[in-house]
Amino acid sequence: MLDNHHKNLATFIHLSTFSRFIIPFGNFIGPIVLWAANKDKSEFVDQHGKQAINFQISVLLYAIIIGTISVPFFIFKLFRGLDVIDFHGFHNFHINVGEPSPLLYIGGGLGALAIIAFIVELALIVKASLSARDGNLYKYPLTINFLK
C-alpha cells in the first residue's frame, strides 16, 4: 500500500535533478542521496530512484556523444586553411567566417539537437514527478538501465 510519504519521496527524487542548476552534479547527487536513504522503505521509491538515476546517467552519456561529434566540426571550420607548418606569427593570421560551410551546418544542427534534447529532458522530469505524485510507476524513454 502506497502512502503519501512514499509518493512524496519518489516525487522529490525526480525533482531533485533540478538541483544541478544550483549545485554542480546536483542532478546525480540529489537523486542518489534520496534514493540511497529511502530505497529500503518502499519498492515504489526504489523503482523511481533507479529510474531517475538511470535517466540522468543516460542523458550524460548522450550529451557526451553529441558533444564529441559536434565539437570537431567547429574546430575543422575554424582552422580550415590555416597553414600550421609555415606559421609566421599573428600578422598573417585571419579567420574567414564570411562563407558558411557544410561542417558548420552539421555542427550547428547537432547543437540545436542538444538544445531540443535539454527541453525534452526537463519535460520528462516533470512528467515523471507528476506520475510519482499520482502513485504510478514511470519509465523514462531511451533510458539505459544501469541500475536494475
Number of domains: 1
The largest sheet, given as strand count, sense and whether it forms a barrel, is: none
**Percent strand:** under 5%
Query: Kindly, what is the distance between the CA atoms of the first and last residues, rounded to a whole number of angstroms?
Result: 22 Å
Structural class: mainly alpha
Low-confidence stretches: none
Order of helices and strands: HHHH
Subcellular location: Membrane
Keywords: Membrane, Transmembrane, Transmembrane helix
Transmembrane segments: 12-38, 59-79, 103-126
Protein name: DUF4870 domain-containing protein
What would you say this structure looks like, in words?
The longest helix is centred in the middle third of the chain and has 36 residues, at 43-78. The chain is built from 4 helices and no strands. It has one domain (4-83, 99-134). Helices cover 63% and strands 0% of the residues. The protein is an all-alpha fold and 148 residues long. Its main location: membrane. It is found in: Membrane. This is DUF4870 domain-containing protein.
Task: Summarize the helices and strands and which ones pair or pack.
Elements (H helix, E strand, L loop, with lengths): L3 H12 L10 H13 L4 H36 L23 H32 L15
Which characteristics define this entry?
0% strand; MamF_MmsF; membrane; single chain; 4 helices; transmembrane helix; mainly alpha; DUF4870 domain-containing protein; 148 residues
